[in-house]
Amino acid sequence: MYLNCHSYHSLRYGxxxxxxxxxxxxxxxxxxxxxxxxxxxxxxxxxxxxxxxANIKPVVGIEFRYNNKLxxxxxxxxxxxxxxxxxxxxxxxxxxxxxxxxxxEFKNVTVIYPIENAPDSFSHFEFLGIRPEQLSLLxxxxxxxxxxxxxxxxxxxxxxxxxFNLHKILRAIDTNIILSxxxxxxxxxxxxxxxxxxxxxxxxxxxxxxxxxxxxxIEECNFEFDFKTPKNKINYxxxxxxxxxxxxxxxxxxLIKKYGNNNPLARARVEKELKVIHELKxxxxxxxxxxxxxxxxSMGFMHIxxxxxxxxxxxxxxxxTAICPLELDLYFERFLNVNRKSPPDFxxxxxxxxxxxxxxxxxxxxxxxxxxxxxxxxxFKYRSIFREVGKVFGLPKEELDALAKNPMQLHDSNAIxxxxxxxxxxxxxxxxxxxxxxxxxxxSEQPITNYTVLEMPPKGFPIVLFDMHVxxxxxxxxxDILSQRGIGxxxxxxxxxxxxxxxxxxxxxxxxxxxxxxxxxxxxIGNTIGCxxxxxxxxxxxLRRLKCDNYKTLVAASSIIRPGVAQSGMMxxxxxxxxxxxxxxxxxxxxxxxxxxxxxxxxxxEDVIKIALHFAGVxxxxxxxxxxxxxxxxxxAAALQKVKDNFFACCQQxxxxxxxxxxIYRQIESFAGYSFCKAHSASYAVESYQSLFLxxxxxxxxxxxxxxxxxxxxxxxxxxxxxxxxxxxINTPCVNNSDYETTLYGIQVFLGLMHLEGLEAKxxxxxxxxxxxxxxxxxxxxxxxxxxxxxxxxQLLIFIGAFHFTxxxxxxxxxIARLILVNFKPENRNLMLLQEPVKEYQxxxxxxxxxxxxxxxxxxxxxxxSCSPFELLQTKYRGDVLAKNxxxxxxxxxxxxxxxISRKHVPTKMGxxxxxxxxxxxxxxxxxxHFPNSLKQYPFQGGGCYxxxxxxxxxxxxxxxxxxxxxxMPFIPDPRYSNSNExxxxxxxxxxxxxxxxxxxxxxxxxxxxRHKMSAK
Length: 1017
Known about the structure:
This protein is of the alpha/beta class and 1017 residues long. The protein is built from 37 helices and 23 strands. The strands form five sheets. A seven-stranded mixed beta sheet has the order 1-2-3-4-5-6-7. A five-stranded mixed beta sheet has the order 8-9-14-11-10, with helices on both faces. Strands 18-19-20-22-21 form a five-stranded mixed β-barrel. Helix 4 links the parallel strand 6 and strand 7. The protein is globular, with a radius of gyration of 34 Å.
């Protein structure tokens, strides 16, 4: 009888989670029900599963609304009916056109109109829904004559009075008005609840025809869905046999190219993998990925295949990944095995500049009817909850900010805030809006609208209405097409080296970078700013603690730096064992044989599989099940218990003492939740090495490429500083030498016009295009004649030094600009064949402070270029110690003067603390720790230079200063405003800092790994 039920997937309308909705039906003795969320099918697949588990017949449909007006409800009679509705709604989503008042001529859909939108006549598939409270209308002939077409319409939207209030709050959020402004047309009826089925039937007992019609509709709706069969494009070629043949051929070609003709180990591995791939029918998936890579290579794009796919030697032979799994002892079972229900998953990165070209290829090659992005449900988060709900209750902005930024215990205690908290907490984990998955692409065998409605977000690629978990559940294997700036750094560096030096660098040859001693020397001292995954302060500190000077140690470092790993104690133990290999014993011989590379620590997810295989004798495919179950990816507690029982049964067969088996299981259990995929770490390490090779050998080109890809962990200023430290001569933007991006001529670096805060992007692009078309600008007059720009833009360019080539001072240029523009007519702005001679102006010579340029630069770029920040300080003091000598001051108190680069917030049980990164007067980096007690008295006060006092702690070759006191040092007064005390110190506030905040709770766990061998008896 329930043909119109809403879950919370009816965004900002429904209040009931799907599982709760089905349980509500069970309690109400409902035997069949329809999920009809508003303009979406997001929840239908989870709904079907929940209903089947509860022995309820699921009916799937859509409630079609436009501008919150209910037009009609569509119920799918079968799979074809769902596809019809999906295509209908998709068309209107794509066109942006209103839904029509009457439904189209569906063939496999039953349509129900509300009385408020009743048509004059009904087709055979159309019915009129009547609510219990509307039955009195049947006394009128107009409605009584439609009795044969009437069905029960008892919508379900909420469960309780509290949820009804929550529904109204959601409606106010959706319509962006305060609660008191809602009208009855904005929200549902107070009767939109589920009552016991028998009670509902009693309400319609005088109208058996309506009950009969409703039952007939339920009987006719038989939507069946096969969750087990794959929905992806099945074959790359015309058949599975040809796919197998082609993949085998390509793998063997790659095998010979990578390993030569005589490598039985590699050949056996390829054959083993191909057998599993073909058996699981994933040959087409591999070939489609190979095809995408082939196109990328043909376009000269650089890609990096990472993730668990790098465990596969077949993917290595196909050129999808660049990691040799034999070199790193990577287990294929981590990626794909006969026991693993989840599909393979390749993560492939491109430069952020080239990703859209790859996406266009995929959509065009495989058909836009068959390709779409995964969706994702954006949930109400803590900050958005209090902002949205607070706004509904009419709170002003300053109160909303306070609610959003502070924990609940610090909120004001008044009645309104209490209501905001009460209803806000109900919204936690509720979906708020649908969005695009960042990288997951689905390629479907059937038109993708057979399964879902599509939406078209602003980026221009369609998205399905369910997330990656539902996609996997219903039989889709996604292709992860990612982008990152790190590849842009590498790719643009290579192009810039060719342009600037005429040198071709084959950066795809990964052996080139991994084996260079100079690169390893940089790595061991953490000189890695700009190098993708290894540039953060934490990573540079780890590299120094490890004196990391080789590829395998970098792979391990890339894994143990992960937050969970580091905080669980694994990182600390790894550093100890790396530096003191003689001070521990391997727990068991298996640990020494299998984990010798990582000192007996299960750093990688693959290590869990190794220990399960080599200690317990559990097959590698079962070991992967153990890993997944323990890492929280298992289906249930029962599944985990099953693999645990299997582990101990296998240990018993091998006659291991129970105590030994229990301790090893405890260690596996401790590691599994934190460890990281080794293939993933290896991919990161390769890319990091490629970046480092370029930084070491072509540092200026590399830093310019980093700047042009909008940096990485740090702000632009830091990379400009690195370019300068590498020998680059830094110039402010120039209309004759700068492009939109930063340019390089030899060692002369001209910052790009894009960095000028206040200059419109279209004006910046026009300056470059006009110069390319008609030559360099000869003078300020020539520039004004050729570029449509107002006095504000001209002044900005003058102040930054963009007309330095004229040889005139900024003051002279400002006077000339005003003299020209006072009588200038825009219609005369053109290039004349015979230019009039430039007028000579007799201008006074005005004295300028040498620091005026630096303050101009801070104002327009946010950092000085013409001098160091230290030169702008009032004090000449530069500290007692320099960064390069800190390692010699262990446990000693030092006083340093430093410029703040970044700080990272870390929550602790004692309160918030920070780790700071600084440069000294010589431009070298060092790090500090600021504990809660110190911060209370000596907090950070924004970007700039500070005087620091603290104690040096050298932790495995890495010095850190624990700060006891610090004070921000004043700059000289801004000489441009010598007559205005108010403005003399304003520009200083524009100096920036990088701040990374962490909101997580402190990690409580420590793995407590024993350092002594346990007896096997």
